[in-house]
Amino acid sequence: MSKTEVGVTLVDRGAVAGQNTSLAASLFTQARSKAHHVPLVKETYHAIAELETLMNEKLGVQKIGTVHIASSVASTESQNELVTIANAHHLAVEDAPDSSIEEWFPWLDRTKIQKAILFPADIYVDSTVLTRAYVDGAKANGARLLPSTNVEKIVIKNNQVRAIETEFGTLECDAVVDAAGCWSNLISAPVGFQLPMAPVRSLYWITEQDKQLFPPNQPVCIMPDAKAYTRPEHGALLFGIRDSNCLSVKPQLLPNSMHDIKLVTDMEQFDILEQDGKPLERLFPELYSVGIKHVVSGLSSYTIDGEFVIGESSSVKGLFAATGCSGAGVATSGGIGRLISELVNDELPFTDISRFKPDRSSEDVFTDSFIRKCALMRSGKKDG
Ligand SMILES: Cc1cc2nc3c(=O)[nH]c(=O)nc-3n(C[C@H](O)[C@H](O)[C@H](O)COP(=O)(O)OP(=O)(O)OC[C@H]3O[C@@H](n4cnc5c(N)ncnc54)[C@H](O)[C@@H]3O)c2cc1C
Q1: Which end of the chain has a smaller Cβ tally under 10 Å, C or N?
Q2: By C-alpha distance, which of 366, 310, 318, 306 is closest to 338?
Q3: What is the per-residue pLDDT for 379?
Q4: Domains of the chain (ranges, CATH numbers)
Q5: Nearest residue CA, atom 37 of ligand 1?
């Protein structure tokens, strides 16, 4: 957006990338079972290349690839569908050779694999590094950054956005994009723009270092039958499991910063591993004997349908949302950014956004039942 004539001010009450983005596992899986999400991820890849050129600096991109493992008939069929989607979007995909699987994933029980496919072009970039590069790129194109500034209210007159009120005063504008992550509804709902999403906990674990068992050159591994994924982490293994009872938080109970909230206790994370890690243990027999060094938890804003919340309010001109990222906000960030730029500039979106409409649900987003349904969406998530 900052590339156009529109003046852009980015307001954040903290430091940019200081909240949930900094906690992401940073999977940039291009092949998605929701085929319409693929163009958004591809756009992130374009944005990364563009930022590196613009800033004349490297973002530490590693082309590590992603392997999808099917260990049941159902996930073998889903994998075939994924290949069809990949081909339609011109994503490189190939069968992962058994010898490579053995070399990359010594921790994986290969006898359980029915089919394994490799997306060799998938990358890893640190989510905080990428977000800061977005900000630097935007600033280079004329955007202004206002950190440590709390947005208190959106001002609307005659169904048109007129300003935002911050803790330091009023900022006049005719378009506002609410991209406040899990806090978005605290800004938009008071002006009647309820966004169909709720804050839901995500968590992953990082093992002790063991370069024999976890070779640093291994690709990301997606295991739908275990609702799990792994990524190499400096000779250790980062692994995430979608727990069956995902914690969800009422937006009005959120503290202003993730630093002030403890989402999981030590005891609870062991219980989750014990209860929901069994399907992963089937593929990773040493799961319960490797040492765990860290557990990382944060909040993603999930929707009931797993779609994003991107678009303009149908009743207030100039009021936009770019949120509800359903656990994929880093991977799809380039696409979300481009869509918002196009919408604010009244241009045709580069891809179909009909499923992302902010006003697609009539449910009250603050009710327990709605919030629970959003958590269930994450519990059921199988791919990257
Ligand atoms: C454990 C975990 C693992 C994840 N792994 C992945 C992954 O591998 N790949 C992937 O694509 N996604 C992943 N995600 C999801 C991803 O992190 C999110 O989709 C993404 O970070 C959302 O970005 P955001 O900017 O919307 O939210 P945030 O990063 O939380 O940023 C919201 C910002 O809004 C600001 N803000 C809020 N209220 C106000 C206010 N009133 N005034 C001013 N500023 C305000 C906050 O200060 C904050 O900086 C993961 C998430 C978690 C928690």
Answers
A1: N
A2: 310
A3: 85
A4: 1-384 (3.30.9.10)
A5: 180
